[in-house]
Amino acid sequence: MLLTRPDLPTENAAEIVGQLAHELRQPLSAMEAIVYYLQLTVVDDARTRAQIEKLRQLIDQSGSILSDAVHYLQAAPARPEPHDLHEALAESAGRLATLDQNLLAFDLADPFPLLNFDLIQMQHLLGAALRFCLRASRRAHPVEVTTRVQNTRAVLRFATTAPHLDLLSPEDLFTPFEDHPTAVAGLGLASARRIAEAHGGDCRLLTEPGHRLALRIELPI
């Protein structure tokens, strides 16, 4: 397997996955354009529109899988610069589909300090966190996003209700390609944790009463 072969250094794996992502970006973008055209022109048939929306979600999922792999395997170290985390969060949320954006509820600390982070890596982390919570809730429950300052750490919390997700050991979801529930399989959480740790932070998944789960990310101030 690509991630475990001893004769394939991480740098080479990252280069291969990066090249694959680059090659697939054009056909995925073309499919997105076709879906957009169909959404504009197919008006009356509700079933067809539902299938078009499923196709759009699959295209988005494919792009996310590639992005997760690139960021998990990346050989380049983080290059942190001062940034507004709330602006990065707003941009990541804005990239989601309109229906997904409507499920987000924000409670952001004000004032909130600038943080040092690699903008590209951080936007991936934030996007991965949002997508994870939306999938875990099956897009049937809101995702609550909060920020606060705790001592010398900035704390981000993504919380939702996931009654269909049975998590006996949340930590297992950070292990790539284990026997995860389908809704949260893959490299999303693993890539998010790698980015958080590369910035001197941490990423943990907590379970709470009432089928609640919370993804907690801490970053140094």
H/E element order: HHEHHEEHEEHEE
Strand-pairing-aware structural class: alpha+beta
What value does the average pLDDT take?
83
Major sheet, described briefly? 5 strands, mixed
Number of helices: 6
Radius of gyration: 18 Å
Strand order of the largest sheet: 2-4-5-7-6
Distance between the termini: 38 Å
Q: How many individual β-strands?
A: 7
Percent strand: 15-25%
Molecular shape: globular
Q: Into which percent range does the helicity of residues fall?
A: 40-55%
Low-confidence stretches: 1-9
What can you tell me about this protein's structure?
Helices cover 47% and strands 19% of the residues. It contains six helices and seven strands, in the order ααβααββαββαββ. It has helices at residues 10-41, 46-73, 85-94, 98-101, 119-136, 188-198, and strands at 81-83, 104-107, 115-117, 143-150, 153-161, 202-208, 212-220. The strands form two sheets. It has a five-stranded mixed sheet with strand order 2-4-5-7-6. The model is unreliable at 1-9 (pLDDT under 50).
Task: Give the tags.
221 residues, alpha+beta, 5-stranded mixed β-sheet, two-stranded antiparallel ribbon, 6 helices
Could you outline the blueprint of secondary structure elements for this entry?
Elements: H1 10-41, H2 46-73, E1 81-83, H3 85-94, H4 98-101, E2 104-107, E3 115-117, H5 119-136, E4 143-150, E5 153-161, H6 188-198, E6 202-208, E7 212-220
Helix pairs in contact: 1-2, 2-6, 3-5, 5-6
